[in-house]
Write a structure and sequence with these properties.
Number of strands: 5
Radius of gyration: 29 Å
Order of helices and strands: HHHHHEEEEE
Helix content: 40-55%
Distance between the termini: 79 Å
Strand order of the largest sheet: 1-2-3-5-4
Amino acid sequence: MLAKIIAELGPWSWWVVGLVLLAAEMIVPGFFLVWIGLAALIVGALSLLFWDSPFWVWELQAILFALLAVATTFAGRRLMLRNAATDEPFLNQRGASLVGRTATLHEPIREGRGRIRLDDTLWQVMGPDLPVGTQVKVVASNGRDLRVEPI
């Protein structure tokens, strides 16, 4: 049955496959099928040009589709990663997002270690020995520890 449909549609069968993949992209989460659908549309455009040529056999079309699917997927991934800008660059780096903020020492810094309260969290800090109540500025983040300097 599928062979009969492909024989009746001729070069338009690749266009149908490409449009079905693009439609499936709206249903399936992610952004993956669009690149495979684009590859099918490219093979469909080439099929319109070469359909009556003796070299344009189904094996060549399938191989070309597979290669184009891989190529467009990698190109699309590179394109999406290059344009992956965010309005919250420190979303998963909470310590780095605190650099530049000021706070009051909650516990004194003794032997290079102390604590500050920022928002609703107590953070371990490293810096010169300072008494409780000193205003400090966060100058660096090292994992869970913050480096501070007196203001």
